[in-house]
Amino acid sequence: MNLDVQSLRTFSRLAHSGAERAAGSLTQLTGVETCVNVTKIEVSTRGDVEREFVEQDLVSVHIGFNGGIDGRTVLAFDRDRAVELVDILVPGAAEQPDGEMATSGLKELGNIMLGGFIDGWADFLETSIDITTPTFVDVESRGALDDITGDSGFEMDTGEDHVLAFRNQLETADEKVNFYIYMLPTHDSIDTISTVAGSEGKTVPVESFTSFSEMITDGAEQASEDLTAMTGSETTVEVSRLSFVPIEAVPMELTEETRLGVVLEFEGLPSGYIAILFDRESADNLAESLMPGMEADAAMRQSAIQEIGNITTSGFLDGWANALETTIEISPPTYVEDLGSAIIDPLATELAQSQEHAFLIDSTIVTDNDEFTCDIYALPNEAQLREALNRLAAEA
């Protein structure tokens, strides 16, 4: 199964259009204004997807689809807040958010929203797509993707099961309720959509994307080991994934809280930008771990973060260079302290001069005792990343 950037662009527009249909269905049903916040295509492991469900305490409604294309859709949400919307449809549901009335209402909510989502795809493909009866899934009692068949994923040599997921974030106007729509089409269905989307002749096997995803994870694990060696605090990689997003949506991936860290440019195959970011508490704890017993002022903290950022970046990118048998040069680190979105925005703006979409790589490294969290965001040049993916395909 091959993919090209043109297909990914079409997938992104389709997913966004379908999500707008779902948002419109919810608005019409409840009177609560709902909009689409971010749409992206992710290559990640099932474990990472399920971990996100657990950490955010999400419950979900699953609906299968078949006909013109086949697969599964998942509507995930915070149960208590979503039940507040269901209460508009089923008065009394909010009094017992774990009760049968609330569950039934959530299934109906999922049926209407996901039905609208799939209708958007059917219209584009000029085909009919049938949907199954909705199933309510509580992550506490079973895995978030337990009923997703193997046809919606692909296994690597490592045995880790990956998924190509279309992930949409919707939110109500008062920002009280966030919904996430995941669409996981089968292999054959991705081929069908790609054929309709048209091809630029620059296709790469989807397995190359998963190979690169594995490479990202390896790089994050090396960065984690380097952080552990520097700070003495045991760290682990919490999540590491590759996403395809509209370039203007990249800054929206970060929260509006202040972040401290470094930004670097890397050149080679591929080239691009990387940001190593910490929240303020993490930055203070890092400075303390590097300079125990010393009163770290702003200059000392900045110096510590620059040093950590430089070493972490080297560990992260060295794995790429080894896997691609190339050389990647890294610029000196530039210290940054600003809102997360404000830090990433100029990097996205620079890439926007030559591309409309971006491959966003994000990894999170955490300590077992919550001493600090390190977020790594990489934005490679789209054309050069495609060349790197083709190189991985040739080696395979």
Automatic annotation (TrEMBL):
Domain CheC-like protein: 101-137, 300-335
Keyword terms: Chemotaxis, Hydrolase
SUPFAM superfamilies in the cross-refs: CheC-like
A Pfam family recorded for this sequence: CheC
Domain of life: Archaea
Regions that span the bilayer: none
GO molecular function, one term: hydrolase activity
Keyword Ion transport: no
InterPro entries assigned to the protein according to its UniProt record, in alphabetical order: CheC, CheC-like_sf, CheZ_family_phosphatases
GO biological process: chemotaxis
Hydrolase listed as a keyword: yes
Name of protein: Chemotaxis protein CheC
Organism: Halopelagius fulvigenes
Phylogenetic lineage: Archaea, Methanobacteriati, Methanobacteriota, Stenosarchaea group, Halobacteria
